[in-house]
Amino acid sequence: MDSRHIKDYFSQDGVVCDYARAVLNVGLWESEKIVFGRFFKTGDRLLELGCGAGRIAHNMYALGYKNIVSTDFSENMISVAKAISEDFGYAVDYRVEDATSLSFESSSFNGAIFGFNGLMQIPKRGRRRVAMSEIFRVLKKESFFAFTTHDREAPRNAKYWEHEREKWKDGTRHLKLDEFGDICYESEHGELFIHSPTCAEVEEDMSSCGFQKIFSKKRSEIACEPQCVREFSDECIFWVYKKV
């Protein structure tokens, strides 16, 4: 999968509008409030990656997190996020950034967030590791990095992955998929890519970048989400790692 395809998808007007509506209609998940509140202080300088139209940053700002630098590689997403922020009088610092090549100085943030499984929308495992390393670089020591992923080994997905494995064996897999665990499906806005990792894969990659695992738990085990959140996104795993 070409990363330009990912950027083109998230630059479409329809996709940007969906993410803009989520800023107010969905807001912070209950599980996000719990996890972020546990590991981040309101005075921390936080870096958000893959912010979309600002769902997380906007609502964290309202809770008192006033020092957030919120980034996305889609110029359209950032433009809309800025407009929403200005409408509310919020001083969120929105910037266009590529998670695999951050412009920030080393050790300049007290924490980082990559919400809504965004880390796994970076194609190719090697590039995801580059992003992890970049996040490690810009974090101060003892700082936390929180993100979410799907779980390839979840029992409810077993039949799907059994079927996918057969496709990889007989050569009928989707031609744009680079690695087993990749998913490419037709959404209402076109072809959408995401990687669904195993827990072992996440732990191996994060460890290789120097992070230490602090916390991992399914979203449903953290909080009971309202209907609007469950319609917006399905089950995932929350991960929190520490730069040691």
Structure notes:
The protein is of the alpha/beta class and 244 residues long. It has a single domain, classed as Vaccinia Virus protein VP39 (Rossmann fold), CATH 3.40.50.150. 41% of the residues lie in helices and 23% in strands. The chain has ten helices and nine strands. It has helices at 3-9, 13-25, 30-39, 55-62, 75-88, 125-138, 158-170, 199-208, 219-222, 227-232; strands at residues 46-49, 68-72, 93-96, 109-114, 139-149, 182-187, 190-195, 211-218, 237-243. The strands form two sheets. The protein has a seven-stranded mixed sheet with strand order 3-2-1-4-5-9-8, with helices on both faces. The longest helix is centred in the middle third of the chain and has 14 residues, at 75-88. It is globular and about 55 Å long. The protein starts with a helix and ends with a strand. The model has no long low-confidence stretch (mean pLDDT 97). Residues 47-141 form the Methyltransferase domain. This is Class I SAM-dependent methyltransferase. Keywords: Methyltransferase, Transferase. One of its GO terms (biological process) is methylation. GO terms for molecular function: methyltransferase activity.
